[in-house]
Specification:
Elements lengths: L4 E2 L22 E5 L12 E9 L3 H12 L6 E3 L8 E9 L3 H5 L6 E9 L11 E8 L6 H14 L1 E2 L13 H10 L2 H9 L8 H11 L3 H7 L5 H11 L3 H7 L3 H21 L13 E4 L5 E3 L3 H9 L3 E7 L9 H13 L19 E4 L1 E2 L2 E10 L2 E10 L5 H9 L5 E2 L1
Parallel strand pairs: 2-5
Antiparallel strand pairs: 1-16, 2-7, 3-5, 3-6, 4-5, 7-15, 8-13, 9-10, 9-11, 11-12, 14-15
């Protein structure tokens, strides 16, 4: 497919934004992951601990812990990725960990705390939600009333449940790699994964990508930073003569799956964008999600479903494509089928193949409700700010709410 830059539409387009900037420094963006039910007392071979980090990607933080403990990064399980330019905490697990050594870990950018033991591992998506405290710089008291008005709309009607920029990677090309993976275009995947430098890349990574594009593999592997485990592993496989297929297998399967999920996310975002004005309206033929049970089902009683949607007990859903797709009927179904056709997507694309698990379809609510919302204006040594605090359900992006507030959404590759 042809990838183009696009800006997703706003739900609150009728209200002006407050402007400002987020993530001016890590302290301006704090995320605390709520402990899942599996965390607490108990026994078992899995060591659970809270991993706090500052100014690092999750992959870099995991790589640091793994290197210190002498284990593979893939052995450390987590629920999801956290923002890099932020102060974050999240729950991770490791089987048969050297706990005494773990307790002695000292690093200026990461910290380990709250060690527990459980019989099961952490897994992707296993969290109860996140608490965000965000300072929006270059905004202050003059914008406070407008911020409250925007937040009031989103608490009442919802935040569009777009997948945020983080889903698509710092270079915005995760979805393109996911599409190449699904299509079996290994060489195209590696060209994106290891090459195609751009000005926003960190200097060492950019040099490594330039070297790969020149087919100077030894120089490329020497230029990638040590924490970039997967590019180095792929290059090592190529140098060993294992070819593109061998290089693909050398990449952490969890990382490959993230790229496939990013491709699914592009499709969902396209569907949601076409329904942005009515994310809280139940249409005939709709498949809705019950927020209490997180189960989705077709609407049988349109009036009753509409009343429950108004009370935020349920919401319309959109499709994430895969095997065994359940497509809505009526207008929602027409939109979903049109997006699938435009992207030339068929269920067979998601069947398993060597090095890649099969990917099932799922559905996702078109909106989420932020909880425990509070907003204040303040100032510090770095200037004035508006501070917004709120909770978000698992898998929902705080940045989407902040973009609705600031009206500064950036284009992404789709």
């Amino acid at each position: 497919m042809v990838w183009v830059m696009s800006i997703l539409p706003y739900f609150t387009s009728g209200l002006p934004g407050i402007g400002g900037q987020i993530k001016q420094r890590p302290e301006d963006f704090r995320v605390d992951e709520f402990a899942p039910d599996a965390v607490g007392g108990g026994q078992g071979r899995f060591t659970w601990f809270k991993l706090s980090k500052r100014g690092l990607t999750t992959s870099a933080a995991i790589a640091k812990v793994a290197s210190y403990l002498g284990v593979k990064p893939s052995g450390i399980a987590l629920a999801g990725l956290k923002d890099a330019n932020a102060i974050t905490s999240q729950w991770v697990s490791l089987a048969d960990a050297d706990v005494r050594r773990l307790e002695r870990l000292r690093d200026k950018d990461i910290r380990v705390s709250d060690i527990h033991f459980r019989p099961v591992s952490q897994e992707v998506g296993n969290l109860a939600g996140n608490r965000f405290v965000v300072r929006i710089r270059q905004a202050g008291k003059k914008q406070l009333d407008q911020a409250r008005a925007l937040l009031d709309v989103m608490v009442r009607r919802g935040v569009p449940d777009y997948f945020g920029q983080q889903r698509f990677g710092s270079r915005g090309d995760n979805a393109a790699m996911g599409e190449a993976l699904l299509a079996g275009r290994d060489e195209e995947f590696l060209r994106i994964f290891l090459g195609r430098p751009w000005s926003g890349d960190p200097s060492r990574s950019r040099t490594a990508r330039e070297a790969y594009d020149r087919r100077s593999l030894k120089r490329a592997i020497g230029c990638w930073p040590a924490h970039c485990v997967d590019p180095r592993s792929a290059l090592t496989a190529l140098l060993a003569g294992k070819g593109p297929a061998g290089a693909m297998k050398a990449i952490n399967p969890r990382i490959r799956q993230i790229y496939v999920q990013a491709y699914q996310s592009v499709i969902f975002n396209d569907i949601l964008a076409r329904r942005i004005d009515r994310i809280d309206v139940i249409e005939p033929g709709e498949i809705v999600e019950d927020h209490a049970t997180l189960r989705s089902s077709p609407v049988k009683d349109l009036a009753a479903a509409g009343a429950k949607a108004a009370a935020f007990e349920l919401s319309p859903t959109g499709l994430l494509p895969g095997r065994r797709m359940r497509i809505a009927e009526g207008l929602p179904g027409q939109i979903e089928r049109a997006v699938l056709a435009e992207h030339k997507i068929e269920a067979s694309l998601f069947e398993p193949r060597p090095g890649l698990k099969g990917v099932d379809a799922s559905r996702r609510a078109l909106r989420y409700r932020p909880g425990d919302v509070n907003v204040i204006a303040g100032g510090d040594a770095h200037g004035t700010f508006i501070e917004v605090a709120f909770t978000a359900p698992p898998g929902c992006y705080a940045t989407v709410l902040l973009e609705e507030l600031c009206k500064n959404r950036q284009p992404y590759l789709r």
